[in-house]
Amino acid sequence: MGCGHNYSNRGDKSMALDQVRVGMVGYKFMGKAHSNAYRAAPMFFPNITRPVMQAICGRDPQGVEQARGQFGWQSVETDWRELVKRDDIDLVDINAPSDAHKEIALAAAAAGKHLFCEKPLALTLADSREMLEAAEKAGVKHMVGFNYRFAPAVQLAKKLIEEGRLGQIYHFRAWFLQDWIIDPSFPLVWRLQKEIAGSGSHGDLGAHLIDMARFLVGEFSEVIGMSETFIKQRPMPSAMTGLSAKGDANAPLGDVTVDDATLFMTRFANGALGSFEATRFAAGHRCTNSFEINGSKGSVKFDFERLNELQVYFTDDAPDVQGFRRVLATDAAHAYMDAWWPAGHTIGYEHTFTHEVVELMQALSEDRQPVPNFVDGVKCQEVLEAVDRSIEQRRWVSIEEM
Ligand code: SOE
């Protein structure tokens, strides 16, 4: 496969990997989150295979050099084509804007590198399938960045469902609400341009909800949706800016080509019903990523803004104490928590990425596919596009059609 894993005995896959040399493309928001995870993972999980922060890549030489120093990478590349060729890189981490994912992933897979790609996997379902095929053909490992799965409270919800403690699942309802573009003078950043981002709230926020639903409830069977672009034109940005960009009211206007909000309903293959809402126009909601699940024996509620907690209700609690109880998922009994702080000491957003990197390193050292991987990325994309089709054609769309 041509990558330089440091097996103590190169021929023996059962020997543990002692390091994975990472080359990362992108150094903005997600680049910072991933860098922090590579640093924290071996410190708090000392038994995992160690990620080595070998090279960081970005087009702007000054910007990427600044990020190298700040985040602690060993070297810099300004062209990802050079990065993927390097024989001192085992894993290529892709967190550049979505339109770059496919080309980088295909080249990296062809060079025998393992892949770690931010969500949504690609601009289209066809592209995501091509990425999966390329990874499978090259025989490399692949992971997609659905980080919210890795909150211990979400892992607890999964455990309760798997152990049957919520009974048969009837409802999954989820909403991801933000408000960072509610001001009409907010500029036309790349996330509002279809050719770069693929879609708007749907692919950016809805993708997380879809993955969460698949993780917790199961596969989707059919969907019907609606969406809206409330502000159809915005000032052109002066640079490649992100979520905290400032608008210039005098700049020329350009067309917004993505959705501002997308809502949809689903029927899951196991008979449960789901509802989903993703919007960037929910005033006051900075990053409300929530779900509620109702089963025959109980319910759970999760809200990312209180990510250490899971609200839990069991129908067989004694009648005089029935009600939702708040479980603080910080004890050593909860996933990943024995590596962090004493019980009751909370964790945050960045820890979800650290846990994601722990899973990635663990999978690589066990010579298995990490989860979630490109198969999950493709399945998410199937649902995203089924919803798009349903909106265009104003009808229910079965996932099998996709
Ligand atoms: C911006 O909408 C954003 O940062 C997304 O791109 C992330 O995937 C989500 O986790 C939080 O919001």
UniProtKB/TrEMBL annotation:
Task: Name it.
Answer: Putative dehydrogenase
Whether Oxidoreductase counts among this entry's keywords is yes
- UniProt keywords, alphabetically: Oxidoreductase
Q: Where is the Gfo/Idh/MocA-like oxidoreductase N-terminal domain?
A: 20-146
Q: What is the superkingdom listed in this entry's lineage?
A: Bacteria
Q: What are the recorded GO MF terms, alphabetically? A: nucleotide binding; oxidoreductase activity
Which InterPro entries does the entry link to?
Answer: Gfo/Idh/MocA-like_OxRdtase_N, Gfo/Idh/MocA_oxidrdct_glycsds, GFO_IDH_MocA-like_dom, NAD(P)-bd_dom_sf
Among the Pfam families in the record, one is GFO_IDH_MocA
UniProt KW Ribonucleoprotein keyword: no
Q: Where is the GFO/IDH/MocA-like oxidoreductase domain?
A: 154-300
| Species for this entry | Paenibacillus cellulosilyticus
